[in-house]
Amino acid sequence: MKACRLTIALAAVLLAGCTGSATRPKSGGRPYEVVVVGDADSTVWRLLSTDAEGLPQAEPEFDVKQLARKDYKGLYRYARNIVVVDIDSARHPRPSLRLERDRYAVPQYILHAGMPSARALKSEKVGQNIFSVFDKAERQRALSYLQRRRNLQAEQTISRMFGARLQVPAELKASKRGKDFIWLSDNGTAAMRNLCVYKVSRSSLSAGMEYRDSVMKANIKGETDDMYMRTVPYSPTFYVMENDSGLLTRGLWEMQGDAMGGPFASRAVRTKGGFLIVEVFVYAPASKKRNIMRQLEASLYTFKPNHYGK
Predict the structure, then answer these.
(1) Does the domain at residues 150-303 carry the CATH identifier 3.90.1750?
(2) Contact, 140 vs 279, CB < 8 A?
(3) Any bridge partners for residue 98, and if so which?
(4) Which class would CATH give 31-144?
(5) Model confidence pLDDT, tens digit, residues 61-111
(6) Neighbours of 66 (CB within 10 A)
(7) Of 44, 12, 34, which is closest to residue 120 (Cα–Cα)?
(8) Confidence of residue 276 (pLDDT cuts 50, 70, 90)
């Protein structure tokens, strides 16, 4: 198989790596699982096992399985995400990352990290690039899954209400509407998945999330009007998305007057007269939430207001 080699400086195009045959078997493993081979100092394990942001309980960004090189065989070769570390100054005088796609299975990403020394593997630049490869790979898989399983009726409703395009997961069938607001849910018992779209008529968004709390208080209530959703103080973190395509926020929500709570993520895009915001949130008190949230977050990346930037 032809290899694709590139240097650290070209990490932005890593996901355009080599692709194997479509006749390969289906890859194994769950989303956000990574097999790491030859990482004697556990450097990659520590990098990928940092706590995921925006969750109420600690969960790692990735679930990592470490292997010695001699054990890299059999079913492990069919894992969806693999990092193969090779530290050898003769073979790798400079740090390099080489990506193979669908080498043994489909879909599959195998990242070969060739390093001149263990110290080189610990560099911040290398770490950021390794993390980015698998973060983007899982997002693309989530987007592909969403593309095949959509609630087209809800998407049409959102288009009529807000003049925006958004891909909505098929399982979100229950809905509630308000003024410049729609809430979609799967009404799940063990884990309830939710998506909201709403409009905010203001020139800027405050870090205190007062705009969100005002909308949620009016539209998402508990058993009584004294129970309503609000943002957990100081929980949100903010990121400007690629190509300045919106503001991504991750944080925690809670119900005033009740014991309910969980994580949320939103994307705000400036439009004519204010902002359009799409938000996803989860209530799953007895379950891990990382994978549920990341799958829901795929919808945020499909959000396209017709009046974007105007």
Answers:
(1) no
(2) no
(3) 5, 112
(4) alpha beta
(5) 999 999 999 999 999 999 999 999 999 999 999 999 999 999 999 999 999
(6) 16
(7) 44
(8) very high
